Amino acid sequence: MEEKIKGVNLGAWLVLEKWMTPRLFDRTPSTDEYYLAHDMDPAAYEEKIKTHRATFITEGDFVKIAAAGFNVVRIPVPHFIFGDREPFIGCIDELDRAFNWARAYGLKVLIDLHTAPYSQNAFDNGGISGVCKWAQHPEEVEFVLDVLTRLAERYKDDSALFGIEVLNEPLTPEMWDIIDPQDQFEPRDQELAEGSGPISFAFLYDFYQEAYDRLRKVLPSDKTIVFHDGFDLMAWEGFFKDRTFDNVMLDTHHYLVFNNEPDQENLEHYKAHLNQIGTQIEKVSQYVPVVTGEWCLFNQHIAQNQPNMTDDEVTSFYNELWGASVDAWNKGDGYFYWTYKLSIDTVNTPDRIGKDAWDVSRAIARGWAQV
Amino acid sequence: MEEKIKGVNLGAWLVLEKWMTPRLFDRTPSTDEYYLAHDMDPAAYEEKIKTHRATFITEGDFVKIAAAGFNVVRIPVPHFIFGDREPFIGCIDELDRAFNWARAYGLKVLIDLHTAPYSQNAFDNGGISGVCKWAQHPEEVEFVLDVLTRLAERYKDDSALFGIEVLNEPLTPEMWDIIDPQDQFEPRDQELAEGSGPISFAFLYDFYQEAYDRLRKVLPSDKTIVFHDGFDLMAWEGFFKDRTFDNVMLDTHHYLVFNNEPDQENLEHYKAHLNQIGTQIEKVSQYVPVVTGEWCLFNQHIAQNQPNMTDDEVTSFYNELWGASVDAWNKGDGYFYWTYKLSIDTVNTPDRIGKDAWDVSRAIARGWAQV
């Protein structure tokens, strides 16, 4: 695209995360989508998941996304999108409808394969908390490559297709140690989690090359193939300089996470941090286009101080943060906000105060963000 | 209120209408909420209805409604709101949450009792299509009065309570003959529908007086008690002049329905028609405050011609229609648009083209409406 990507993720629609739509997990012991599908009676599960999908994102949302000034939507999809992995229920019809909406309202779609069987990161959003063994199962690696190929075949001629991201957030070794996903996302089945570990760069390079080779054969050259950086933006110079790719992009995710260090939870530090990332993005952009595929305004400063701030102070803080963020992302090819909307209720569950900043539809309505 | 009511209905949230959220009726033979609850397995029904309620309207919608400039929401609620009419599932917790959202974002709430057992109008939105026998069942009239009293008791001290509308759209004799509801909304069970007929004005006057007497005892004087006009705005002069009421309001509904008469389906005719209603509203306002509790921009001219109109032409048409409508409603105390949002898909089901005008959230996003 000539202009920068001003994008938004349709999170919590076809891939669930309990913290984003907590009431969807009512009446179950489940904390992730894997167990939601396994814990529930199949008929009740079908009603829950299909009602959610039909209600959470509709044509009207595409109208509003376009009207807000966004130009691309990134749609996280699960590995079971084609409905061939029981007890999960497929959602390819939903994606078909979304492409029709995107075309009608002048938006492009980046399909983002967000989960893999046995997970690529052990996060709740990888589908199953605390488990990360996908890369150890060659048949599941092949399954993922096949899902990607089927998605490419299905939408290759659709004018609304921006591209396909081959896998969201594979967790690489250094970040595995820092994030410690099995501590944050405790496995429910220790036996299933046994043997979990990070995705090595060696594996990831091979997987990306293989995915590229298969998709590039199918996709016209104007469709972009996107690789996530595995949370290590500076680890890709050799990969891209040693190989020849046509129309690829590196996706990097940046949230304001500083483990509540008091001297870091303020606007000055956030801006300095964003500026630093912008410099990295600029550098990497010399050998591969870079998009910030996930970020948001949420930060601990507001979460902790909002009840004592005026509305104007909150708005001004977010406006500054938005500007500094977008400046950084525009050192590359642009951004996708995480996320378009979520059902978090800061009024009836006040421990969620501040988390509404993850919801760009509310951020826009409140004047916190201007696309 | 000092300023005019600039209101919006939260239709299709706690009271369902199949045409507004058609996919909610997938996998069932049901065409209304009565049969949805009776046709489905209870566990599956619970998942469907609770997922819909938790997803369709959330805190974020109250943020956006306030940001758009509305000042009151009218919330249609079913007679089974307290959960005492199996197999229906109550939704008083949802209404509690809505009051908390309204307070947080500076909105008022008009509670609108939208259905009665055996229905007051035989419409799909009365709960059971083709049946209208509520007024013939004294114990159900008493049940409704009791539900109203319980609602009043629950919210009487809530600063967000604007008032309570005692019953939506009771269908009076003349309009029964014109609308012919059993033709439009065919009864599924002929035996149950047997004996259905309109609500007489004599009954309605008595019912409104009784409801007023009970609610006025409970509600502080700043809370408004609202009566629907039974689709006959000019039939109420005697009622209000013969009696003394404290803080009541008459609700009148106006849609642009002209049975597709070609010479009537144009902007000039719509404006003349609205002007005429405005004159009536002005007249009736001399003896009772009048609010237009339901109306919308939908019209056959756009539904039939939109594919051949430019976006600018459509926008300009709707802008003129919006202005003429609000001018008419402001001859009284203001309006509530029907409705805030609906899930109709004009892209994937093109026979619905034009029906997106029922959705004021889309109308605002597209520049068709400016509150």
TrEMBL record, chains A, B:
GO terms for cellular component: cell surface; extracellular region. Belongs to the glycosyl hydrolase 5 (cellulase A) family. It is found in: Secreted. One of its GO terms (biological process) is glucan catabolic process. GO terms for molecular function: glucan exo-1,3-beta-glucosidase activity. Residues 57-339 form the Glycoside hydrolase family domain. Keywords: Cell wall biogenesis/degradation, Glycosidase, Hydrolase, Secreted, Signal. The keyword DNA-binding does not apply. Signal peptide: none annotated. It comes from Alkalibacterium subtropicum. InterPro entries: GH, Glyco_hydro_5, Glycosyl_hydrolase_5. Its main location: secreted. This is glucan 1,3-beta-glucosidase. Its EC number is 3.2.1.58. It is an enzyme of class 3 (hydrolase). It catalyses: Successive hydrolysis of beta-D-glucose units from the non-reducing ends of (1->3)-beta-D-glucans, releasing alpha-glucose. The keyword Phosphoprotein does not apply.
